[in-house]
Design brief:
Three copies of one chain form a homotrimer. By secondary structure, the first copy, chain A, is α/β, with parallel strands linked by helices. Chain A has one domain: Hypothetical Protein Ychn, Chain: A (3-Layer(aba) Sandwich), CATH 3.40.1260. Chain A is built from six helices and four strands. A four-stranded parallel beta sheet of chain A has the order 3-2-1-4, sandwiched between helices. In chain A, strand 1, helix 1 and strand 2 (about 40-45) form a beta-alpha-beta unit. The longest helix of chain A has 16 residues, at about 20-35. The first copy, chain A, is globular and about 45 Å long. The relative contact order of chain A is 0.24. The interface of B and C includes residues 146, 148, 156 and 160 of B.
């Protein structure tokens, strides 16, 4: 359907996963689409919100959510592989393979996304659920949004992906 | 493209995962879309069929499929987290975090989906494969359907997601 | 939007996963869509590239990528379940359940996809990253492609899925 005002094609990604290996397709697809003139939104929800938390922030509003954050440390650089993580060895190896082959790490690709105008909407419900405040998240994100807002955008987007 | 008769926008979700954490986006997106006037179908297939089996039903048509069901117990309340399940502790904790923060459990969100007119189609092929009879599944589901039927609906839907 | 030349509806699948259980939806949806006259492309990337490597090929261009391939052996028949793999028992059992219930294994469904005109594009970036040469991959694939090419096709497709 495209954006009525600009005529640009639209892509919306629901970034549900916070796994290192899935941060690559999200950031590569988003930045590539933006570079090719598409209007791109990433709706970050559930585990996908963890990478967007600033390094070192303590999240969680009670014992349980703090424990959850302890087991699943926030921040791009803490993201684990969805499999073969092997106490961090898989993650570390995958990052080295990427660096050696000129594939940018997801945190740099993410910066590039923001620079290129990709909108990143943190999921308000997940923030409430996990005890993440807006000021604990990376700069440059859009306002927290709910599922209804994301769905309205997806209904207008040529490409919708759940990653 | 929308529904030709009603003009409503359409969303189709392929619910492939039966993991607890993925049951939330499926039921939240489906119920929110329905609440906003969209015509929503969930095509439940593979692991995504397990939550739709009634509590306590014994599924499986031979030793192997029975063993498979034993390792992956059917029913919404048995669904495990995709990671950090830790012998059920992660699941239990996540359910407590949800309850404490007024996020309905997936089984209640699912009831809400049905109440709001979301169509849920169990995958016929998966039922045959795993030995799940129609009478063993939750009430309110649509007729079992195949991939061709799901694809025909997806070709008309504004939003298609594989979860 | 459909193909401007043929008027056929289009589907594009990003095959990110190489897990056995996810190879089934990819190949079933792709072959069923093609059988129903759709123009189908599968963009195979990241773990999704491993099944497309010929049996017995040694991939990897250095020690790290060779180790990665060692832990994640390429080829359709080596694909593991995303969960319950249990040192191969889950995989073996799932393959037996499939065979007993007349569900073709993914490698045969994949052949059928190619026979029916499904286009399979290996991701050039992943090939470079993991050290996979074009001659090490199954016959019948399309030319390696990048994210921009995949996105351009997705912007025209009625159905886009990330699996």
């Amino acid at each position: 359907m495209s954006d009525a005002t600009t005529g640009e094609e639209m892509m919306t990604i629901i970034a549900f996963s916070g796994d290192l290996d899935k941060l690559w397709p999200t950031t590569i697809l988003a930045s590539t689409a933006a570079a090719n003139g598409m209007d791109v939104t990433v709706f970050a929800t559930f585990w996908g919100l963890f990478p967007l938390v600033k390094d070192g922030e303590k999240i969680g509003h009670d014992a349980m959510t703090k424990m959850l954050a302890g087991m699943n440390p926030p921040g791009f650089t803490k993201a684990k592989l969805s499999k073969m993580n092997m106490a961090g060895m898989g993650r570390s190896m995958m990052r080295k393979v990427a660096a050696k082959n000129n594939l940018m790490p997801p945190e740099e690709l993410f910066e590039m996304c923001l620079d290129m105008g990709v909108k990143v909407w943190p999921c308000q419900m997940t923030m409430d659920l996990l005890g993440i405040r807006a000021d604990q998240m990376l700069p440059g994100l859009g306002d927290p949004a709910g599922a209804a807002t994301a769905l309205a955008r997806m209904a207008k987007s040529e490409i919708n992906l759940f990653i």
